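Hello,

Our lab assistant flagged a job as stuck in the queue for most of the afternoon. It eventually completed. Since we weren't sure the result was trustworthy after the delay, we are filing this so someone can double-check. Below is the sequence as submitted and the structure that was eventually returned. Let us know if re-running is recommended.
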Amino acid sequence: MHTNSNALRLVLIAGLIGSLILAVPAFAQGAAVVRVDPTATTITQNQVVTVSIKIDNVVNLFGAEIHLAFNSSVLEVIDADPNQAGVQISNGGMLVPDQVPVNQADNAQGTIDFSVLQINRAGVTGSGTFATISFKGKAPGNSPITFLGIQSAPTGVNLADTTGAPIPSTTQSGSVTVTGTGASPTPTPTRTNTPTGPTATPTPTPIPGGTPGKHIVRAGETLFCIGRAYSVSPWAIAQANNLYSPYRLYVGQVLAIPNVPWTNIPAGPVCARQFGGTPPPITPGPTPPPGCRAVYTVVPGDTLLKVSRTYSVNVFTLAAVNSIYNLNLIYVGQKLCIPN
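-- returned structure --
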């Protein structure tokens, strides 16, 4: 009986070591969880509460990126670093912040964007606190703390291993309820992140080639279905109209459609055209190398994060494909492979 017990113990230990070394699918795929902790909490008006973003059951974590939404009429983020411009949150210590490509909280829009990348370090396996956020209660009500999907991070989360490959994960949201002093909670409608947009016509930024026409956004339309309608690059439409990832549009918005043809258009919904003709053809550039859908040349003012958002690609994947180990170090004239 004692011999059998020892044998069983050895089998279990060997299995555990094997799972760590080989990163077996049962653990590496689908097991990582990114969650808000605590799931629900109640504070009074003007009280401050710290909410953590935890990452559980992850293997070989090298970089992480989160995008959150909260009800800005109920909560505001307390700046974690007054010496830096803007409002920021705190690193939780799970990853060493060798690079912090983005750390910004918008108390007007109710959004938080935060990412951390380790450089030349072993990946992290296990569970830990990725970030902490200090919220102050502004007014009675309820604020969900949800993961906000963007074009390059549909679930609101990107996790990457040391090769830059994505790590599958799920998310668990939370909420904070704010009460008046001595009063019971007063529910308010859950804030959605669908913007109503301004009533004035936006002024587009001119880009080479001019604008062959205007498109008025209708319900359900996206940059990609509009791009397919005119065979125009959706990223060029975003640039011409000062739009940034996640490229939210609103009904009635007027978009300038630039002369930037879109080739190798993937299948998908096509919006109804609102003006005739197509952008004039341009001389095609060199064929991108295998595995690249485009080659981008860095210009003054570019950052790797900006390029990744322009092309809706994970910044960690973009860095890995181009053998970039310092996310803050790219140079004018550098050629970047934009992966498929």
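-- support follow-up --
The delay was a queue issue, not a problem with the job. The result is valid. The first strand starts at residue 32 and ends at 37. The radius of gyration is 23 Å.
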